[in-house]
Amino acid sequence: MASQIPLSFPVFNGNENFYTQQAISSGHIATSGQFIDKFESKLSKRLHTHETVALNSGTSALHLGMVLLGIGLGDEVICQSFTFCASANPIVYLGATPIFVDSEKDTWNICPEILEDTILSRISKGKKPKAIVIVHLFGMPAKMKEILEISAKYQIPVLEDAAEAIGSKYQSKECGTFGTIGIFSFNGNKIITAGGGGALISNDMAIIQRAKLLSTQAKEDRPFYHHLEIGYNYKMNNLSAAVGLAQLEQLDFFIKGRRLVNQRYRTLLNDFPGIEFQPESNKSISNYWLTCILVDKEKTGFSNDQLKTALMKKGVESRFLWKPLHMQPVFTMMPYYGGSLAERLFEEGLCLPSSADLTLQAQEMIVEVIHEELSKTFK
Ligand SMILES: *Cc1c(COP(=O)(O)O)cnc(C)c1O
User: Fold this and answer.
1) Where does the pLDDT of residue 373 fall: very low under 50, low under 70, confident under 90, or very high at 90 and above?
2) If you average pLDDT over every residue of the chain, what do you get?
3) Can you provide one Gene Ontology molecular function annotated for this UniProt record (predicted)?
């Protein structure tokens, strides 16, 4: 049975139908067409300093980004452990090794101190990491100032996985624009969707030119098919771009909606013992793609798991936070640096329904379920 209140549901109130009709009427629904160009230039304009290459997924954007940073066989790449598998999988596609790093409590993203310790440890073992993959989890900006200082000090480029963080800001600057390369995802449940899609951004025109070439099978500009290197079929299609453009036009509206949802949860659960929210500092503005809480079982009397089940019984979908990658069976043989923070976030965390158009009534009902759980435990 589909949940009455899903975790995150797209809102199509804009030009989605109009643009897709136009794309179909034009006859161009594949990897060339006006909506791809429009989508790229609209996103570039929003990011001010950066150019965009529209791709067919966030994962392909990460893979291509790593290719462009020269990552290859036998290299080591540092990656935030507390993230979705797609942040690290492309490291393995390239025959390189992910080195996982724990989170810090202020943003739940990569811990700068442990990051520096990790770099020093890897250098002492004989290999300097080739790149640092950082993530702005659930839309919350990572500690970019500290991370960029470390990146500059050791001359290791940052690949910024902003798949969940389009429109989020750190010190008034758009997430995605801090690293040598940044990526976004427009998958079905992200804050804006293109059905499926991604983007690679950079302010280095050489990188953008190469991303364009490599994402279209490295087909050289000749009258016949001519290839000087191995490329990929990673370009976004015009039909997806039509949906993506319509969604991008509404991004600020969606962020406003999701931030309001977050604010209401905070108000409704204010003073609730043992429930903590993902912190937002005064340097950051999260797009609040998902509102996440931690449930301290000692204080609430119930676990995140019990709460998830109670919500499900009322038709409310919730989801555990990402299981840290160093705990994943496929990655357990990879090096990990840090303590148990990411593990605790996973063990106590829950993502609450966060759609941009979630009503106050629905949120009051969700909070009522939480209160019922509490009263059950103390009966
Ligand atoms: C969704 C996501 C990706 C992958 O994007 P796709 O478009 O689904 O391939 C990568 N990293 C993070 C953190 C994500 O949430």
Assistant:
1) confident
2) 96
3) transaminase activity
**Atom of ligand 1 minimally distant from the CA of 59:** 9
- Ligand 1 centre distance from Cα of residue 270 (Å): 31
Pocket test for ligand 1, best of 63, 136, 187, 189 (most atoms within 8 A of CB): 187
Same domain, 285 and 243: no
Whether 8 maps to a domain, the answer reads: no
- Looking at the structure, tell me whether residues 220 and 276 fall in a common domain: no
Q: What is the pLDDT of residues 22-65, one digit of tens each?
A: 999 999 998 889 999 999 999 999 998 889 999 999 999 999 99
Q: What pLDDT shows up at residue 375?
A: 82
Tell me the per-residue pLDDT of 176-215, one tens digit each, with 9 for 90 and over. Answer: 999 999 999 999 999 999 999 999 999 999 999 999 999 9
Q: What pLDDT shows up at residue 178?
A: 98
Instruction: Quote the pLDDT of residue 2.
Output: 58
175 and 40 both lie in a single domain: yes
Residue 292 and residue 314: Cα distance in Å, rounded?
19
Instruction: Report CA(314)–ligand 1 centroid distance (Å).
Output: 29
- Testing ligand 1's pocket by substitution, the residue of 7, 8, 59 carrying the most ligand atoms inside 8 A of its CB is 59
Q: How buried is 364 (Cβ within 10 angstroms: 0-12 exposed, 13-18 middle, 19+ buried)?
A: exposed
Residue 268: give its domain's CATH number.
Answer: 3.90.1150.10
Spatial contact of 56 and 237, defined as CB atoms under 8 Å apart: yes
- From 38, 130, 190, 235, active-site residue: 190
Q: How many whole angstroms from its chain centre is CA 221?
A: 34
In total, the chain counts a number of residues equal to 379
Q: What is the pTM of this model?
A: 0.97
Residue 6 within a domain: no
**C-alpha distances in angstroms, 149 versus 49, 116, 117, 223, 282?**
20, 10, 14, 46, 20
How many structural domains does the chain have? 2
Whether 100 and 140 share a structural domain: yes
Distance, C-alpha 194 to centroid of its chain: 15
- Residue whose Cα lies nearest atom 10 of ligand 1: it is 86
* Domain ranges, residue 317: 252-377
Instruction: Classify the phi-psi angles of 233: left when phi > 0, otherwise alpha if psi is within -120 to 50, otherwise beta.
Output: beta
